[in-house]
Write a structure and sequence with these properties.
Oligomer: heterodimer
Order of helices and strands of chain A: HE
Number of helices of chain A: 1
Helix content of chain A: 55-70%
Number of strands of chain B: 8
Shape of chain A: elongated
Structural class of chain B: alpha/beta
Order of helices and strands of chain B: HHHEHEHHEHHHEHHHHEHEEHEH
Largest interface: A-B, 34 and 52 residues
Helix content of chain B: 40-55%
Shape of chain B: elongated
Structural class of chain A: mainly alpha
Distance between the termini of chain A: 73 Å
CATH class of one domain in chain B: Alpha Beta
Radius of gyration of chain B: 25 Å
Strand order of the largest sheet of chain B: 2-1-3-6-8
Chain lengths: 46, 379
Amino acid sequence: MKYFFKQFIIYFLLCIGFLGIYTYSAIDDLNGKVTESNVKFVYEAF
Amino acid sequence: MNKLFINLLAFIVAVILSYVLFFFSKTSIEKNIMLSSFMEESITKSEELKIDLESGKIVIFGSSELTHNDQKFIPQNYFNKELHLPLRVQGHAGAQCFVIMSQLAALNNKDLRRDARVVIFLSPGWFSKYSEGTSVPLFLEYMYSGMMYRLFFESDIEDKYKKLVGDYIFSHHTDFKNLTYLYKYGMQYSLDIATVNPLNKLINKSLKKQLTIKSTNYSLVQYKMPFLNYTKLKEEAKKVSKPSTTNNWGINDDYYTKYVLPKIQKDKFPYDIETPSSLSKNQEYQDFLNLVELLKAYKIKPLFIMQDLHPYVYVENRDSMNPILSSIKEVLEENEYGYLDMWSYTKEEYEMGTLTDIMHTGELGWVKINQKIIEHFMR
């Protein structure tokens, strides 16, 4: 039983951590973080 | 008890409990989403194009030729200022078929399909030098968060177009910096996991609940055909064209001195045209096909205009454009779309002044294009 609780706590923290990171990073994105480009478009007459 | 079984049981209980906990914290999530007005502002930004399309205003999608605002006959000047007929232009250098398709997909609805009057300016350069398709900076410029939201949650476009956008983000993901939620959602869409992800469902539900998309009232644009003397207008166009005294090809002096003359002096003249070995390897052509497919649902047939590359400048390998041009023409004719082919198949058929430089439409060219727009939409 002790082993079960130990494992449960580990998994529970992992799940909460994952859900928290995923959701709050999404909220952060929706609150104004802007996706940018790594590359530049250089237009030139060819 | 078997350790594996204990671990499995502990994991399942942990997942269930954390999800229940998470479910009850959704009010807090909703509040956090509303911390900023960013999404509302981004959606408002997309409203203007949506209204213009839905109201039946002529909307031209094109690229660099649309930025020569000093020309008298360029459509945005000629229609709005001279003829007092409303017209919108959308795009600048690099805005190619894929980002045009993405915008139309994002704003798709029944009103738009019924009333939109769309003109697409095609550039031969898209299918040759820029045949790899729309670049990420241009995609992001026109498919900002508000447009991405509209595409995935507001538009009634078929899933395959949403998937195409997702596929684009997925295949170009290394060119994106700080991929935010809506773009990641697009990538998941490409992998068919976006709608089954329970976390997405929770976030999307909160997002939809909190966002107020204001619908703006508008009245339908009605066009009455203006009676114009095109012979006179062509004469006037020649008079108002930028001076071309340094060459015999009608290329304006500034452009010729800055770009063409140095190439002649370096013996890098005439120019050549490089095209992909086949249409299936020409990404821009594939994007063009998808755009044509999307426009099939429009009640008012769109108008496509293929522009020219100067036949006295782009001489080498010019014939390589022929299969592309004939395929484009065939596809457009099959769909009974309007089409104006400005490409010069021989030097003799080119009229000086049609282009202002080596690839951008000049005053004379605009008169011909304006005539086609009027005849197509104002009969």
